[in-house]
Design a protein that fits this description.
The protein has helices spanning about 25-35, 55-60, 75, 90-100, 120-130, and strands at about 15-20, 40, 50-55, 85, 105-110, 115-120. The chain is an alpha/beta fold. The strands form two sheets. A three-stranded mixed sheet has the order 1-2-3. The N and C termini lie close together (about 5 Å).
Amino acid sequence: MDEKILVRDVMMPNFTKMEGVTKVDEALLVMKEKKVNAVLIEPRNDSDVFGIATLKDIARKVIAHNRNLHEVHLYEIMSKPVLSVSSEMPLPYAARFLTNFNVSYAMVYDNNDVIGMISLNGIVTKWALE
């Protein structure tokens, strides 16, 4: 495997951002439509940071507790802050970074702009296809 593969070569550029006040049922509709398993939660103001909500969060924090999808807001179940990696990071380091923190997703940034997301699933799939 060529260790020159970078995060930007594997990242998902079709990520979705949502407001924390979005209800989980609305978020699920968008996630299904856009075929994503995680959404970034926008910072509320300049001193706030991004959060993330995943299908796993919905299963663990909503469904497992028998809560109603239309009553729970994303801010109630999101993880915050979100790990971020540079688009220039070599893929093996990104895999190590995510696994060291026991997370499946990270934001990808370039010049201080969020340009995508990367997942362990995407890393493994890319690695297996090489």
